[in-house]
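Appendix B, example 12.
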Amino acid sequence: MRMSILIDLIYLFVVCLGWPYLIYRRFSQKRSRLALGERFGKVPSRPVSGHCVWIHGVSLGEINATRTIVAELHRRVPDGVIVISSTTQTGLDRARNLYPHLPVFRFPLDFSLILRRVLRHIRPSVLVLMELEVWPNLIEVTTKRGIPVIIANGRLTSEKSLRRFNWPVIRWFARRMFAKLRWVGAQDRTYAARFIELGVPGERVEVTGSVKYDVAEVTDRIEGQDELAAAMGIDPTQPLWVCGSTGPGEEAIVLEAYDSLLGEFPDLQLAIIPRKPERFDEVAKLIVERGFACLRRSTGAPLVPAAGPAPRPVFLGDTMGELRKFYALARVVFVGRSLVPLGGSDLMEVAGLAKPMLVGPHTENFTEAVNLLLAEGGCRRVGSQQRLANAVTDLLRHRERRARMGQAAREAILTQRGATARTVDRIVDLLT
């Protein structure tokens, strides 16, 4: 039996078992865009051209990491075509915003017939998967057609992920799949060793570093930051504490810390930007429950507690693509999903803006970057609400410490650049 048919049968079995849950999830999350056509391989045909690079990223972070790769490919292969796909709606929205003139589509279901249809439409010369977005049929069908598949900015973020690929039965599929990869550009030596353990031949694995060091724009200002401040009523002459990419449980900690800080810093402003769009309403409600007014970026209309004196406002960033503008306005930054065990968030954009930043203890998804910044004095780690408040207090009191931290963070990422060039070198080699 052909491998792709076996994989299709396994998928069909799983769908038959899980369809009630899938239907429940569809309606409980109130998703408005199913995009069934794209799910079943109805994607735009690419223009006639000698070479085509298909780049796929699962969501927002991976799509953001494609920026320098796409720019360098345009420079080095000006006659080539680049197509972009993403799995999530936030990833698609970001890709369409970044690349309005490129074919962008939702990643299809991993059935062999569907993937063959996609390949007929876009006719890629090479497939670039960002970080670790591997699918059995995708690898099987694509490589069978002689199309090389590579992983760029590769990472395996935990031993838990590695163990899953080593489960009985899955281990056999995983090793077959990873062995077919033509090249892996790993972010560091630890990730490189994990890819080799999963079956990628050692000579095909290279430590390139992270393209996120290249993506981070080194600048003191972001276009549109003043307009954002004016629209939301943020006073640029007063300190602003920005808490970005926060996760469940963190906003309550941040609000407690903010309440304690107002005694010493009555003019301190707070902006919270949750990582997941589906949590915007939840966080807005929490802000009001804690006795603050909530000023939402999306509406401009404040939400206020039902009774009591006029409350102090907290700014809620509930639009996509504006996190960097908030960071640019900040005096101090907390990078979220790190006080709670969610693996942390990307620090590169904050470092590029030379902002002093704080992180929690849970940063295993960005271990190398966090360790680099900690070692160079470009960020501080805190482990509780009180330590968070103390660290913000210290940085607000000492301007020179803020400046030193921010500059150290910026210089640290500048020393790590070059992953984009190394990755595009391999892509161009495969096109020739």
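The longest helix spans residues 3-28. Residues 236 and 329 are 7 Å apart (CA to CA).
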